[in-house]
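User: As part of a screening pipeline, I want to sanity-check one entry by hand. Below is the sequence and the SMILES for zinc ion. Please return the complex as structure tokens so I can compare it with the automated output.
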Amino acid sequence: MSERFLEGNLKYVEEIFSPAADFYNELERGQSPRALWIGCSDSRVVPNIITSAPPGELFVHRNIANIIRPDDPSLAAVISYAVKVLAVRDIVLCGHYGCGGLIALDNGLVKNEAVNSWLEKAAPAKEVSDKLGGDVNEEERLKVLVEENVRLQLKNLLLIDEVKEGVEQKKLSCHGWVYDLGTGLIKVIDKIE
Ligand SMILES: [Zn+2]
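Assistant: Here is the complex for your manual check:
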């Protein structure tokens, strides 16, 4: 199985890297990304592909259901480095419809302690989607859950000192987006600036 990816790497070098050697050699000298992208680990939501962003433009952190936990040391380090050292001007928090993590939170059918404990931080979004009336069908309710989770996690970003300071000093904007697996389009949900 892993051979497939190594073969893919050779194909990448031949077809993409080598023809743009000047660009990649310049990137080797350092990075200056335009934005920090925080998204879901889902294999179908690949930040650089869905935004047509070449290497070097997005500093990326991904976890299940794009959850912001200020007590997550990996996320804290990524944000601190992106904001303080790389001086990104934008943080994009991007969820996606059909998010397996949020569906698991919604139906409670996944019996995995690590996953369930992680997903607890999205519970307030579920409270909102649970309150929707009976005229909202299942698909729409799950879409609301995904969008509410983006709103919630966008707010949670402000619990992190570097983000709060950056926003207050007008040096940083935070964007909440949702990617649609069915159309390939990104929907803008909310913005903090
Ligand atoms: Zn997901």
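Points to compare against the pipeline: The mean pLDDT is 95. DSSP finds nine helices and five strands in the chain.
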